[in-house]
Amino acid sequence: MSTAASEAGPAERGWLAGITQATPIVLVYLPIGLAFGVLAQEAGLSPLNTLMMSRIVYAGSSQLVAVGLFAAGVPALSIVFTTFIVNLRHMLMSAALSPFLQRWRKLELAAFAYQLTDETFAVHSARFASHPPVKASVFATNVTSQLAWLVGTWLGIIVGQLITDVRLLGLDYALPAMFIALLVVQVKDYVQIIVALLSGMLAVGLLLLGVTQWYVMIATLVAATAGLVFERWINDSSS
């Protein structure tokens, strides 16, 4: 007996799988995008510029930082430089995924890189470790995630005049909560637990010491290097 699932081709199944994998991201991008839309309206950005920022920049933390700097009257060049620093972590994410995409064409790589975020990176890295990347599934995840971000931004623009303080809704905790959930899914042994705890403690410590721009990248590099050294030491000891 044939079913709709069995009759669907590989591309259709790939897109459906990608959309399903993007579901946790969608559930967070909607409220965070809404918060960004509200904050952008409070900062004085026009609805068009707010939507275009989510369409072109598409980097939640950078957009929120940029809106805060814009509201504070910071010069445009300083805003661009600051968001560039914040987004340097994408170099690490791209380097981590590049070995899995060596057979992709340059245009496909450019499209993938454009829609790579912290959240899609977490989903893809966990998936690529056990399954070869399927283009339909990968791009379905990316496109679905960005559409959710755009819809959230649009909703934020609409309700921007009604909600003047998004902190009352607790939306600022949605992003950390999603990262915690993604981390739990990826952790598979005690070495990864040590790396996660070490990177978190280092990031918080550096932030408390006043390292406000590079603390995440430094903590990631140090913890990842320590984890690699520790894992190699374990392998050498057992061999």
Question: What is the topological layout?
Answer:
Blueprint: H1 4-7, H2 10-21, H3 23-43, H4 47-56, H5 60-71, H6 76-86, H7 89-97, H8 106-114, H9 118-128, H10 135-158, H11 174-186, H12 190-208, H13 215-238
Helix pairs in contact: 2-10, 3-4, 3-5, 3-10, 4-10, 5-6, 7-9, 9-11, 12-13
Percentage of β-strand residues: under 5%
- Rg estimate, integer Å: 20 Å
Average pLDDT across residues?
A: 83
Model regions low in confidence, pLDDT < 50 over at least 5 residues: 1-8
SSE class: mainly alpha
The main β sheet shows up as:
none
Global shape = globular
The beta-strand count equals: 0
What is the number of helices? 13
Q: Would you list the SSEs in sequence order as H and E?
A: HHHHHHHHHHHHH
How many domain modules? 2
Portion of residues in helices? over 70%
> What's the N-to-C terminus distance?
52 Å
Textual characterization of the structure:
This protein has helices at residues 4-7, 10-21, 23-43, 47-56, 60-71, 76-86, 89-97, 106-114, 118-128, 135-158, 174-186, 190-208, 215-238. The chain is mainly α and 239 residues long. It folds into two domains: 10-186, no CATH class; 188-239. Helix 3 (23-43) runs antiparallel to helix 4 (47-56), helix 3 runs parallel beside helix 5 and helix 12 (190-208) packs antiparallel against helix 13 (215-238). The chain is globular and about 65 Å long. The N and C termini lie far apart (52 Å).
